[in-house]
From TrEMBL, chain A:
Protein name: F-box domain-containing protein
Pfam families tied to this protein: F-box, PP2
CDD domains on file: F-box_AtSKIP3-like
InterPro entries: F-box-like_dom_sf (IPR036047), F-box_dom (IPR001810), PP2-like (IPR025886)
Domain F-box, residue spans: 1-43
TrEMBL record, chain B:
Record's keyword terms, sorted: Ubl conjugation pathway
Presence of keyword Transmembrane: no
Source species of the chain: Acacia crassicarpa (northern wattle)
Gene Ontology BP annotations: jasmonic acid mediated signaling pathway; protein ubiquitination; ubiquitin-dependent protein catabolic process
Biological role stated in the UniProt entry: Involved in ubiquitination and subsequent proteasomal degradation of target proteins. Together with CUL1, RBX1 and a F-box protein, it forms a SCF E3 ubiquitin ligase complex. The functional specificity of this complex depends on the type of F-box protein. In the SCF complex, it serves as an adapter that links the F-box protein to CUL1.
Pathway, per record: Protein modification; protein ubiquitination
The name this protein goes by in its record: SKP1-like protein
């Protein structure tokens, strides 16, 4: 039975971008429905035009499908380069990265403690390099309206460590992601030093004391772009509310000096079942 | 239109007669217009034809009769929840033969709720099927030329075309 193209497009709008691409192989009418602007408009977030207008160089595109593919492969700098925005390739949910300049970093303006530099692989113009502090506190905010509805999000700290970094090997860092100023927001302890890095160092320099890695701690993962990331927490955005969400990375209890952290930003993206 | 009329008779495209209550018929915009325009009093023997086959029309009327009370009076959350469960059961019929017919009928009769339900059901079924399974189950002809197929094979290496 042959469905009209409009009906096929409506059926495809209940699938995912990935399914729609695959289903374009069924027949020629499926293919034209799967390429239609009407379909890809339904996959693009409703506020896409306003997000594009916040970029200093909005992309040009020949169809809504091309725009979707562009935004799911290429983060777009918005708000004077303070944030970047892109779409999750599989579900089309909005993703954001907050630049270090858009975060509130305690002591961040004191050159003795933090230095602002640019690195070739950085997504933003500047990264914040931790020279040395005892009080480490980095906070960021995003409004739930910016995020896609009915989506489970995770926030991540994206960073690099200098070869000379210290203060993070044994000292856990407290991180959180949830409703801002909510004292009940779940907090977790993480280690910013990658797992296994200690063992390698131990072999090289026998002076590091032998202490086991804490099995309950989370350790950073290496990303495709070469940076590390650590999950700060997750939050289910129902989409009905207008709430400020807060992200935090703190180490203010140990009182030790810490150094060698390059902050690339906070990333907020859907938490997908892998 | 006489206010005493509670049900109307319609003909399917196969020529069978079906009764549908006025409140259920109101779920469809074209039927609603028909109710307003056409005289359905007892002395009027005009029977409108709906371009939907009998097998499909039975299901469409069943859906309308179930949803009419809620559409006309509003319902509590628990009713909405119960109706959602009913919809899922309703779509568990032997959909593969009739689903596309229901989808087209809902589109033709401007029934948004049933149209979305049918499209969602079709989408969920297709998500779990290969391209060749979809063609077979929904009787869709592979009308690509061999060159086009070759091109699609390159673009979608994961899809099976046989």
């Amino acid at each position: 039975m042959d469905l009209p193209e409009g009906c096929i497009a409506h059926v495809l709008s209940f699938t995912s971008p990935r399914d729609a691409c695959r289903l374009s192989c069924v027949s020629s009418s499926f293919r034209s429905a799967a390429d239609s602007d009407a379909l890809w408009d339904s996959f693009l977030p409703p506020d896409c035009p306003s997000l594009l207008s916040r970029s200093s160089s909005p992309p040009s595109f020949s169809s809504k499908k091309h725009l979707y593919l562009y935004l799911s492969h290429q983060p777009l700098l918005i708000d004077d380069g303070l944030k970047s925005f892109w779409l999750d390739k599989f579900c089309g949910a909005k993703c954001f990265m907050l630049s270090p300049r858009s975060l509130s970093i305690v002591w961040g303006c004191t050159p003795r403690y933090w230095r602002w530099t640019s690195v070739p692989e950085g997504r933003f113009e500047e990264v914040a390099e931790l020279l040395s502090v005892c009080w480490l506190e980095i906070r960021g905010r995003i409004n739930t309206r910016m995020l896609s509805p009915s989506t489970l999000y995770s926030a991540y700290l994206v960073f690099n460590l200098a070869a000379s970094a210290y203060g993070f090997e044994y000292q856990p860092v407290e991180v959180s992601f949830g409703i801002a100023n909510d004292s009940d927001a779940p907090k977790r302890l993480v280690c910013l030093h990658p797992r296994g890095a200690l063992r390698r160092r131990r072999r090289r320099q026998q002076i590091v004391p032998r202490r086991a890695e804490n099995p309950n701690l989370q350790y950073p993962n290496k990303r495709e772009d070469g940076c590390f990331e650590i999950e700060l927490g997750d939050f289910f955005n129902q989409g009905r509310d207008d709430k400020e969400l807060g992200m935090a990375v703190c180490e203010i209890n140990g009182g030790h000096w810490k150094s060698g952290l390059f902050i690339q930003g906070f990333e907020i993206r859907p938490k997908l079942d892998k | 239109m006489s206010s005493s009329v509670e049900a109307i008779t319609v003909l399917s495209s196969d020529g069978d007669e079906f009764k549908i209550t006025v409140s259920a018929a109101k779920l469809s915009k074209p039927l609603n217009w028909m109710l307003e325009d056409v005289c359905f009093s007892d002395d009027c023997d005009e029977v409108p034809t709906i371009e939907v086959n009998s097998k499909t029309l039975v299901k469409v009327i069943e859906y309308c009769e179930k949803h009419a009370p809620r559409a006309n009076s509003g319902a509590s959350d628990s009713d909405a929840e119960e109706l959602k469960k009913w919809d899922i059961e309703f779509m568990k019929m032997d959909v593969k033969d009739i689903l596309f017919h229901i989808l087209m009928a809902a589109n033709y009769l401007h029934m948004e709720g049933l149209y979305d339900l049918a499209c969602q059901t079709a989408a969920d079924l297709m998500k779990g099927m290969t391209v060749s399974q979809i063609r077979k189950i929904f009787h869709i002809k592979n009308d690509f030329s061999s060159e086009e197929q070759e091109q699609l094979r390159r673009q979608h290496p994961g899809c099976s075309f046989d």
